[in-house]
Design goal:
This protein is an alpha/beta fold. The chain contains 13 helices and 10 strands. A 6-stranded parallel beta sheet has the order 4-3-1-2-9-10, with helices on both faces. A 4-stranded parallel beta sheet has the order 6-5-7-8, sandwiched between helices. Helix 10 links the parallel strand 7 and strand 8.
Amino acid sequence: MADSAPIGVFDSGIGGLTVAREIMRQIPNETIIYFGDTARVPYGSKSKQTIITYSRQIIKFLQTKNVKSIVIACNTASAFALETVSKEVSIPIIGVVMPGAKVAAETTKNGNIGIIGTEGTINSGIYNSYLSGINPRVKVYGKACPLFVPLVEEGWLSDPVTVEVARRYMSELKDSDIDTLVLGCTHYPLIRHTIGAVIGNRVTLVNPAYETARTLKEVLECKGLESISPPGEHKFYVSDGAEKFKKFANTILPCEVVETKDVNIESLDDKI
């Protein structure tokens, strides 16, 4: 049975657009309803309970759009909230951590895997947990890179400041002899070339956004939820700064974002 209902995708801001982009490329018949929590970005420094609260609010909003599945396109929310919220709804919900961890474990040759992400993602230890479950012999080296998110949000993707920040962050990982590096925040693929140039070409970069779209495709096919019709209009919502978001989205998505709407997610929560 095919299902033309949309896919809900949410992130703390613009980073989840890298996941939306991969969904559009890999599953082109699917329609996306995107929510970026731009008023409350970044998530990485916030508590687990706060992230669970935010995720619940956004999921309730996406359910009003009759989505058939939800992708938590944020590593921090995947780490802190996925286990809890997935038990509270009947539709499939997937995160971005497990797909990236699986590919990293399959990719590494020497067993040394680097993870870069927000403070919340790194401190949660979720990548360590997944990777040790897949292969107990791997060694995981985590590095929080909190400045990357605001630099990406500012649009400084290849700015000298971003290059210098990357050099400082990557120096520690270079000393760990990693051969695989997981971009453990959906913002980071937007500065993939900068990170790759700094860390060196002997290190393979793993983009969880790409792997998450592959996993979503498998889930939809397994449950008979894939769409066989051309997609409808993709819709975009944010909690603040709709025009700024729209301009940025149009620089990276394969479709034109005609409109982005502001939603007061906290006040809406009481009405849903």
